[in-house]
Amino acid sequence: MSRQFRSTLRDRLGNHLESKKFTTLIEIIFIFGIVFLFIRIVPFFQDNQFAQQLIVWFANVLMITLVGFGQWLRGLNFRDLGLVLPVWSGKTYLKIVLWSFLICIITISSFILGSVVMSVLTGANAQPDVGNYQYLKDNPGIFVLSLLGVYLVSSFGEELVYRGFLIHRISALLKGVKFGKIYAVVISALIFGLAHYTWGVTGMVQTSFMGLVLGTFHVRFKNKLIVLILAHAYMDTLLFASIYLS
């Protein structure tokens, strides 16, 4: 296959992805479908929680790679999805850190609210099922390794995919629709919740609430992801630390 042919094919595919709503919808379904099937089909290490977590992490890396490939076909990169660092300024980065702490607090509050809502609906004390993370207990080496992994695939990866990619693509599908951006945030939040199906129904509701908050701030900050990535990292640290110390 000649270089010219590959370039022409890339241009055609990229233009199709960028201009055809149906193709964009197929892209979204393909990326999330492939990752879901990968997690469900891989049969290895069913009795090893850490190995199962590694499979989920690999699936998330696969999802990031597919998103990056779609950007490459369009002649774009992750910067066009909001992965941009501002020019260095002490004042600017102080504001980023302060905003990230505030967003973290609001998002944790939404997570708790989701539990309250489920408790009211079910009439019982509803909590997410985080039993798959019990491998963290009393294991400092695995705890540190897991934190490093979760920073990459969750703090960074989930914000890139569920906020940067998904809200951007759904907004493109709803272009011209009144309140299209709001619908994009809501739909991305629901998909984010469904992606946490291993946490049970309560966990899916809670993470959907989180997705609403993070998606709203994503729009508020004009698609800049750095603040959300930091806020997500704080939450992941608190979650893993609470399980490790429990």
Notable features of this structure?
0% strand; 8 helices; mainly alpha; 246 residues; 76% helix; globular
Describe this structure as you would to a colleague:
- This protein has 246 residues and is mainly α.
- Helix 1 packs across helix 3 and helix 6 runs antiparallel to helix 7.
DSSP strand content: under 5%
Enumerate how many helices there are, as a single number.
Answer: 8
Biggest sheet architecture:
none
Cα gyration radius (Å)? 19 Å
Order of helices and strands: HHHHHHHH
Uncertain ranges: none
Inertia-based shape: globular
N→C terminal distance:
57 Å
In helices, the fraction of residues equals: over 70%
| Mean of pLDDT | 88
Secondary-structure-based class equals: mainly alpha
Strand segment tally: 0
Secondary structure: elements and pairs:
Elements: H1 3-19, H2 21-41, H3 49-73, H4 90-122, H5 140-173, H6 180-194, H7 200-220, H8 226-245
Helix pairs in contact: 1-2, 1-3, 2-3, 2-5, 3-5, 4-7, 4-8, 5-6, 5-7, 5-8, 6-7
